[in-house]
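$ ./design --mode recover --in tokens.txt
reading tokens...
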């Protein structure tokens, strides 16, 4: 890419309880790029996101971010007391300088207006993930950081959510850094893949990573059963969830 990186991660090392969680991790995230961290449980993916966010201090290394950059963060999970009387709308209004009209607009964009008055504990897993995504968008982020964005979402909803993330990237002109286990979807929905196992095993375009010996070794049968694909739809989902058809397009997937 011709533009300067929006985030530069250099030589990150993190040690916890005498063990190295991350070693010698370096990468650059560019504007409008979708980068996905993949790897087995315990490979340091969430720790790396926390280092980028400034929530975890590394033992060694640096993270440089462009000045005056807004970051939207979507956590892997959210624990809410079941007795807490809070609706989706009120949850999204929590924070500084949140306007009801602005929150309403974002809920409409992400397709969750219908649950605005519902207790947040009562909505489905897919709806909750969209609520968290809406919250991450409220401050017009230059970078979206998403930790397992399809956590608790059924199979049918996973592809829709990844497609929505792609459309958000285009609509907001933002970069996306996310963690995912959904190999078959990620390989088709990202620009850059980093395969992490406490260090960077391999990285690059999904086509090259999917053929790399380190990737094949790390994911075993799952890697052998997944081919990188590009699915040509005869429609796309607008950011509000509506479907726009393209009669001349064909679906070869």
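writing sequence...
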């Amino acid at each position: 890419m011709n533009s300067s990186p929006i985030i530069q991660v250099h030589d990150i090392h993190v040690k916890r309880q005498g063990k190295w969680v991350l070693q010698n991790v370096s990468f650059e995230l560019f504007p409008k790029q979708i980068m996905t961290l993949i790897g087995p449980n315990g490979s340091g993916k969430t720790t790396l996101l926390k280092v980028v966010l400034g929530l975890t201090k590394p033992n060694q290394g640096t993270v440089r971010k462009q000045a005056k950059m807004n970051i939207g963060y979507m956590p892997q999970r959210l624990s809410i007391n079941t007795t807490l009387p809070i609706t989706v709308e009120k949850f999204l209004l929590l924070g500084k300088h949140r306007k009801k009209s602005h929150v309403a607009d974002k809920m409409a964009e992400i397709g969750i207006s219908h649950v605005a008055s519902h207790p947040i504990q009562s909505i489905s897993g897919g709806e909750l993930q969209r609520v968290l995504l809406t919250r991450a968008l409220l401050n017009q982020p230059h970078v979206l950081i998403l930790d397992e964005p399809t956590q608790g979402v059924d199979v049918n909803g996973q592809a829709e959510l990844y497609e929505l993330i792609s459309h958000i990237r285009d609509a907001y002109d933002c970069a996306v850094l996310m963690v995912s286990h959904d190999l078959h979807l990620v390989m088709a929905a990202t620009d850059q893949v980093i395969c992490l196992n406490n260090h960077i095993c391999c990285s690059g375009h999904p086509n090259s990573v999917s053929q790399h010996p380190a990737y094949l070794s790390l994911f075993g049968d799952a890697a052998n059963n997944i081919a990188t694909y590009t699915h040509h739809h005869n429609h796309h989902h607008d950011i509000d969830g509506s479907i726009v058809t393209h009669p001349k397009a064909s679906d070869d997937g």
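exit 0
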